Amino acid sequence: MIKQLRIKDYILIDELIANFHSGLNVITGETGAGKSILINAIDLVFAPRVPKEVIKTGTDKAVIEIVLENTKHDLSKLFEENGIDNFGSEIVITKEITANSVRSRVNGSLVNQDFIKQLKNIFIDIHSQHQTYTILQPKYHIALLDNYARTSYGDKLISYRKKFQEYTNLQNKLQALKSASDMTESQIEFLKFRINEIETANITSADEDKQLADELEVLENAEKLKELTGTSYWAINGDDGSVIEALTRIKQNISKAVSYDNSLEEVEQSFADAVENLKDCSGRLRDYSQNMSCDTERLNQIQERQFLLDKLKHKYGGTLENVMKSYDEFSKELNGIEFSAQNIEETEKEIAETRCELEIMAQQISENRKNYAKVLSSLVCEKLEKLELPKARFEISVKEKELCPDGIDEVEFLISTNVSEDLKPLAKVASGGEISRVMLAVKSIFAESDDINTVIFDEIDTGISGKASQSVADEIVQLSEYHQIILITHQAIIASKADKHFYIKKSQNNETKVDVYVLTGENRVKALAELAGGEINEQSVEFAKSLILN
C-alpha cells in the first residue's frame, strides 16, 4: 500500500507530505481546487513520460516520492538482480523532474522505466479517465478478460503468442525466399560474375595491399639500400681505420686496466658483448647489401597486383576487408537463390504444421475464454444489481475470427440497462453513471482476484446520485476491507465512509497555491455538509452527522 506521498515544487504545491490510511482514503474539495493533483502525482511517479510543465514556476525541479509498505510480495530477488538495496517492508520510489531530464530511483538507486512499470503492476491499479475510455473500446476487452482469467490459461496464452511469433517469422522467411527466387537470369549471372571476379583475385588477407606496398617501396629503393648498407658495413669492418679496429684497441686497454683493478671486469664484459653484437650487425649488413638487387620482374608483378586489388576495392567498398565481406554476401545470396525452391517447399510445410499447432492452441484458449466470459459476466451482473442497476444485463461476447496474436477470438462487452432493450455494445448504451458503475464492478471483481495492494479511483462516482451513491459507497467500503482505496469524490455519502479524509484547497493571494488538509471532527462535518447541500447550514450539518454515524 501507499504509506506516504511527498511532493516538492510540483505544479502549484510548494511542499506536501500526505500519510495514507490502509483502508479508504477520500479526497474532496471545491470545484477547480485541484483534487486530482495527488492522484496525478502518484500516476506521474510511474509514468514513462513526464511533461516539464509540472515543475512549479520559479523552481529548478519537481520531486515526487512515494513510500510503499510491502507485506505481500517477496521482492528480494528482483531487487538483488537490479542492484537495489532492500529496506525490508518499505520501498521508496522517487521521481525527479528537471528541465533537461527525468530520473527515477528506487531506494536511492537509479532504475529504468521497465523496473518502475513492474512495481506499478505489483502494487497499484489507477482508474483514470483514460481507463474509462479503455473499457468502452472493444479492442481492449480481450485483454481485460485475459487478465481476469490469467491464472487459468495465462501460461497457454504466453506459449501461443511465442508460437505465433514463430509463425510470423516463417511467413516473413517465405516471402523473402519467394522474392529471391523471382530474380531474373541476368541478375543471377551478374551475381555469379561478381563472385568469380573476387574469387579469381585469390586475395590472401585483408592487408595484402599494405604488404605489397611495403615490398614495392623496398624494390624501388634497392640501389639506395644496397649503397647504404654496404657503406655501413665497410665503416664498421673495413681494412683501414674501421670501427672494429678502434674498438679492439679500446678492448685491449680495458683488459690491461682490469689486471690492475678487477672492479672493471663488468665493464670489460659489457664492452666485449657490444663488440660481438656489432660484428653480428656488420655481417648482416654485408649479406643484405650483397643480396640486394632490383628485381624488375617482381616489381612489375607487384604493380599489376596492386592495379587489380585497387580495382576490386573501388568496386566493392574501399578496402580489401570490405571486398572479402562482399564476396561472402554474394555467395550467401547465390546459395539462397540456388536452394530457394527446396527452401520454399520446406518452409511452406513448416508454416502449415505451425498453423495447425496454433489452431489447436487457439481453440483451447477460446474454450477457456468462453467459460470465463460467462463467469465474469455473471459476477458483473451481480455487482451491477448491488450498484442499483437491478435490471441490467451484462454479457461478454466471444466470437471467432481469423487467427491473430491473441488467438481466434473477438471479445466485446455488451450491456442492456433496460428490460425492453437488447444487448448492445457498452460504448453505445451506457450513460456516464452506468459506465462508472460497470467500471467499479469490473475493478471490484478484479481486485478480489489479484494481489494488487492499492486501487485508485479518479471520480468513480461520475453521473450517479441518490440510492446509486449509497450502493457505490457500500461497494467501495467492502473493497477497502481487502485493499487500500484512494478516491476523489463529489458525493457526501461516499466521503462519509472514509477512514481518512483529505481536503484540497486552492488559495490565490500573491500567487496561486494548493494546500492539502486532513479533516477530522467538526471540520470534517462541515466539509460533508457543504458537499451534501452546497452550503453549510443547520440541515446540511445534521445530515452530515447522520452520514458519519450511519
What are the defining features of this structure?
six-stranded antiparallel beta sheet; Rossmann fold; six-stranded mixed beta sheet; 550 residues; alpha/beta
Descriptive overview:
With 550 residues, this protein is an alpha/beta fold. Among the domains are: 1-127 and 451-519, Rossmann fold, CATH 3.40.50.300; 207-318, no CATH class. It has 20 helices and 15 strands. The chain has helices spanning 37-46, 76-81, 113-123, 129-136, 138-148, 150-181, 185-201, 208-220, 222-237, 243-260, 265-291, 296-315, 320-338, 340-386, 426-429, 432-449, 466-480, 492-495, 521-533, 538-549; strands at residues 2-10, 13-19, 24-29, 61-69, 90-98, 102-106, 109-111, 124-127, 393-404, 407-416, 424-425, 454-458, 484-488, 500-508, 512-519. A six-stranded antiparallel sheet has the order 2-1-4-5-6-7, covered by helices on one side. It has a six-stranded mixed sheet with strand order 8-12-13-3-14-15. Helix 6 runs antiparallel to helix 14 and helix 8 (208-220) packs antiparallel against helix 12 (296-315). The two termini are 27 Å apart.
What's the CATH architecture name of the domain at 1-127 and 451-519?
3-Layer(aba) Sandwich
What is the average of the pLDDT values?
Answer: 86
Number of beta-strand segments: 15
Major sheet characteristics: 6 strands, antiparallel
CATH H-level superfamily title of the domain at 1-127 and 451-519? P-loop containing nucleotide triphosphate hydrolases
**Unreliable stretches covering 5 or more consecutive residues:** none
Query: How helix-rich are the residues, as a percent range?
Result: 55-70%
Query: What value does the Rg take, in angstroms?
Result: 42 Å
Portion in strands:
15-25%
CATH class of the domain at 1-127 and 451-519 equals: Alpha Beta
Task: Output the CATH topology of the domain at 1-127 and 451-519.
Answer: Rossmann fold
Provide a count of the helices.
20
| Amino- and carboxy-terminal Cα gap | 27 Å
The strand line-up of the biggest sheet is 2-1-4-5-6-7
- What is the 3D shape? elongated
Category by helix and strand content = alpha/beta
